[in-house]
Amino acid sequence: MTVKNGYKKIIAFLILYITIFNFRTKAYINNRQCINHIYNKEISQQCNYSNNYKRKVFNKNHILVEKINTSSSDLNNNNTQEKENNAIPNKKLKKKDKKILKKYKDFLDIIPNKSTEYDMIDAIEKIKTLAVHKFVESIDIYLSFNPKKSKMTKNDNIKTFITFPHNLKKQRAKKVYVVTNSNLHKAAADAGADVVGEDDLINKIKEREIKLQKKNTNYLLCTNDVIHKLARVGKEIGSKGLMPNEKSGTLVSEFLLAKHIKLFKFENTYIFKLNKLNTLNLNVGDVYMANDQIKENILHLFDHLDNLEFFHFNIKNLKSIYLSSTMGFPFKIKKTNL
Q: Which GO cellular component terms, listed alphabetically, does the Swiss-Prot or TrEMBL entry include (predicted)?
């Protein structure tokens, strides 16, 4: 067998293979096209049937909806205004917002906005109307100062006491403890002190027989000649903020002892100091007081701040003024009222 004859046989085999393959592929394609055509016909018939059924159902429902709308249109026109007034947005409210809506349903118009400023008397009236709780709510003032504009330094510690001209209608449970020498025990008791003593009182505080509470409910007064004895109970007193001090009016001389006992026991006297954040929070009145009395207490506070040493009070130094009750909303006050 020569090489030429071998090539001829290979070429003949390839030609025969190609002809057979083409014939089979054409037959396969024709069969596939027929199957697809039949399948598409069946699907189109099903779709037409379903569309016709849906059209019939839609037409029936459309007719019913038109009848219902025509019958209820008169009723809806009469009640549109009531629904608009009583409409509530379908938003998910937080727990705090839900509580506010329950308590203050009738006073939603009075709730303050953060951006608006109010007159002092107007704000006091709104605070009183929003005082819904069962107990007697107190009215507090919140002042924030700008340390850059004032002449204060880091060493200036503003701590003082103030006696307001008008007393609260609700009575605070106050106790006055006096540490002094034996010669002044009777005078202190006559002035209204609850507990008077010297070494015996200090020992009771150290052994915790007497439980002292925080300032502005309990007051510890001391005279100058006995102040060194309180070093034994410095931790117990200092943690409650009751250490006697001249600025707070609790460290006094023998002549002023009776006067200061009466101030802290029977009058509306508070000890306060400026915080590190240059803010001041103080109780000015309560809900049962008259509006003019609360305003006079606030103005008396500003006069007192103006007369303090190391604190040059000015409206320019004042960032903001807020009034609020114990469980109420804060109202921003205009600076022009001062």
A: ribonucleoprotein complex; ribosome
